[in-house]
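Late entry, written up from scratch paper. The run itself happened at the end of the previous shift, but nothing got recorded in the book at the time, so transcribing now.
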Amino acid sequence: MGLYWKAAAAVLLAVVMMLMLRRQEIGVLLGIAVCAMVAVAAMDYLDPVAKLLHSLEALGNLDTEMVTILLKTVGIGLVTEIASMICTDSGSASLGKAVQLLGTSVILWLSVPLFTALLDLIREILEGL
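Output as recorded:
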């Protein structure tokens, strides 16, 4: 939990510094650097979640590919959100929307095997009726 408090303090400090450096490019670079630092800190908290998912995968005899797709989808969503916010804060809202479109497209692309497996399951159920 100490890492959380340190990261939160760094974010607040960066916000104050960015307000002071609002019209300078270094402020944007500072924001990007702090976002990267927070993302690295978040990985420490997400590691137990990934281990739990892998335990559930083994317990439920789930397909490893499906769990991997879910984890990748969450990661892409988080990265997309952060990148979009950075673009918007930098005054490029249109680029932020473009990043969101790209992230959504990649998530849908990654989800094709999940949708295919779901359709196969529905077909099996309907054939059994």
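The two ends are 52 Å apart (CA to CA).
(Scratch paper discarded after transcription.)
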